[in-house]
Protein 1
Amino acid sequence: MTQGKGANKRDVVIEVTASLMFPFILLFGLYVMMGTGGTGGGFQGGTILATGFILYITVFGTDKGREKMPESVNVFFKSFGLFLYNGAGWLCILFSLATAQWLNMPAFWPVTEFTGVAGARGFLIAYMISVGIGLTVMASFVSQYFDLSMKEDDEMEGDEG
Amino acid sequence: MKPPAMKPLTISGFITAILLIALSIYVVEDLPAFGDENSPVNKYVKLFNVDADGLVESLNAGILPLQIKIKIEDMGFNKEENYPTLEEGNYRIEWSEKGSFEGGRLSEGGWDILINEGEIFYNEPIRYYFIKEENRNLTVYRYNFPVRINELTEEETATINIVTAGLADYRGYDTMGEETVILTGAIGVILLLRRRGRL
Amino acid sequence: MEWLIQHVLEKYNFWIAMLIIIIGLTATIVKENLLKKLIGLSIFQTAMFLWFVSLGDVGRNILTTWGLKTGTPPILWEQAAEKGYIYVNPLPNVLMLTGIVVSAATTAVALAIVIRIYQKYGTIEEDEIIEKEKEFERVGG
């Protein structure tokens, strides 16, 4: 029976396995996220990255998990991913005067002079949109898991707050 | 001993199950078979049949006969509903043999009608209609959107992953809204569960 | 016997998906524990994705390299047109991909609401919560 945080028995096999698998899961998630030259995409890579963090938090507890993903880094990833994608989208709507054609972004972008229209759209898909989606999905899933599994030791029952 | 009376919740659950079974039989009966090669959602839709009296020569010469043009516009593919018009000089007719490999796809024997759309980035002619001849009848089909996606993705966006190109480029605004929903979910959990100054 | 093959055996995907939909939806209505209702809702959403994605399968009579007779996944490769393969319809896959992730996020919000209900009432059975609500009203809040 547990009486506080430090009374659980530690198991060596599970801890070594989890700490060995953790960097390889993150590397595979990054490989899937940048894979528009084959299978892959933003949503799929983001959830694989979140799975690595959730494995580490489940084995080691929330206190040690907080060192890997502190609160400020979490908030930065959440907002930076949304800023990349929504920034590109709202610029398109403004510059095309709300005719809502996604294609007009290569018309005013300076990258178009080097690669042409098709290359500019490929650059947008692979490096700006996928990365934006992946970071937001990873950060929001990890933060939801932290909130649902944190124990409040000093809260009374039936309290409304 | 009498069994205990059923609660109203279980009775309503069983009634829902029976209604759903009846609805599913009604819906699944009309669907095409799973994995059907010629299902109309994935290839082309049949429009109408016309007698092939003297029309084959004018199709081979590159002019669309007047009967077919009037019938197509009567069905609703005209200028008022924002479809491209079938005027002179706006279209082109191509003939391909059955089993030949041209333009990157395996073709069945027939005439393809290619129409200029006249927008900013869509300058090349796009396949719209397809005419086949069988049993002294001419059947007119209309290509569906998945055919255009499969053939033109490599030219327009330089990616070979059709699913990601459809998510991020052709349907980009939908994905923008769904990402906002995911962020709102994370904020909702924070507001519900963090108390006493831990925010 | 022909109607059996034509209506039942050729469309086995849709029948299985409707069976799981029925299981999920009756579980949401009949069960009284709040967590079991949420699990039924999640089962229902997963079966809906299966039903929608299997509308787009094409090409049953062409032999592929791995021995099955289906269409290939919608990623362009050069040998597909020479050998006569057909790509699967990409549109249902595109539309359901965001739906899967959004359903996971909304399940998390629902679980947070269940935790707050437990902290206030002390149980997660439905009829006990209704009795405690009536007592609250009778006593005066």
Protein 2
Amino acid sequence: MLLGALLGALVNLNRSGHYIHWGFIQISVANFLVIVLMVVVFILAILLPFPRRKGGR
Amino acid sequence: MTVGTGAGNSTETGANAESRQWTARARRAAESALPPDRLLPDRQPAYMASWIYVFGVLTVVSLAWVIITGCILAVMGPSWWHVSSTGLFVNSLHLWSVESFFFFMVIHLWGKFFMAAWRGKRGLTWATGVIAFLVSVGAAFTGYLSQQNFDSQWISTQAKDGINSTGAGALWNVLNFGQMLMWHIVLLPIGVVLIAGLHILLVRRHGIVPPFAEVNEDVAAGDAGGAEVAAEPIAEPT
């Protein structure tokens, strides 16, 4: 029970999804969050320093 | 194929004859385009030490997981992947490896777009990446149609009108499950793997694209430019 709760989804997926409506734009919250996450990862990949081996050039 | 009959003249004759054979010509062309140290390098330019350069290989790793889990699903069948807990797990692995494949591929695309990665005679490398992306979208779409559940029924009935409006529906019928399954597990995976493989070989052939600053410094120093910089090993990968 506890393991299932820990490994389960953060939100109840056994229901119809939420959608964002903005003019003619309609996108599910799940897809919107994935796009936001991609942008965040892209920015972090540019800004974060890459680890270098000690003594390497 | 030339078969030598002994020592001396026959060896020389054999070598000359071999040089005209298509196998020898193909071998020489392959060795010239991709010598072993360029095909499997152990050193890369120093500017590759950036997180933005890792998303290409993450995409390839995700593709490998997509193919492995897809092969398991093909062996076991829909009753297994819908009912058994192990089948549901592998089915989920297949879905999430596809999700990560597109996630990493899109970030890879953004990174290369803002680097103008088609510089230095890398136009074909860029084009094969675009084609691989488009073929992957088709592979993912036919995957949704091949789930064998209400979701796939809903997607196929919604998609048929869009496909039919293009005129392609007569040849490519999304309501034809057998046709969509064959496209998903045979034609499109072969296409994705072949194009992605060609893309990787072209990256090896021309080297990774240097940042703009690196090219400007080389131009100022009178060097040949980005393509030569990328082919020159500078630092060991970290």
